[in-house]
Amino acid sequence: MQKMPRRSLIMLATVWLLTSVGVTIVHAAELSQSSPPVVIAVAADGVQRATVTLDSYSYNPNHLIVEAGKPVELTLTSVTTIIPHNFIIKDPAGRLSVEQDVGAGKTVTITFTPTQPGIFPIYCDKRLWPLPSHRDKGMEGKLEVR
Question: What does the pLDDT look like over 116-139, one tens digit per residue?
Answer without folding.
Answer: 999 999 999 998 888 888 999 999
